[in-house]
Amino acid sequence: MPSTPLESLYKRVGPTLFARAQRALNDDEKAQALVQQVVIELSKLGNLTDEEALKLGRDLLKKQLEKRGTALDSLGPGND
After folding, report:
1. What is the pLDDT of residues 5-18, one digit of tens each?
2. DSSP secondary structure string for all residues of 24-64
3. To 5 degrees, how large is the angle CA 69–CA 16–CA 56?
4. What is the tens place of the pLDDT at every residue in 33-80?
5. What does the domain layout of the chain look like in residue ranges?
């Protein structure tokens, strides 16, 4: 069965975003839930390239972590 655009987006950017979230939260379940939320938000933005989706995803992830009182520390774009 072909994957949906949401599933495709998740497969493309989810692992990178999960790695970042997991390092910040040190909790796989919370990281997974956060990444799912971020990918859903990204999917609402339409057709994004992987580069655009990762950049926006990192930004959304950072904002969500800041709302939770968790910082990404020095995790820059090259530290995935």
Report:
1. 899 999 999 999 99
2. HH--HHHHHHHHHHHHHHHHTT-S--HHHHHHHHHHHHHHH
3. 65
4. 999 999 999 999 989 999 999 999 999 999 999 988 876 654 444 444
5. 5-66
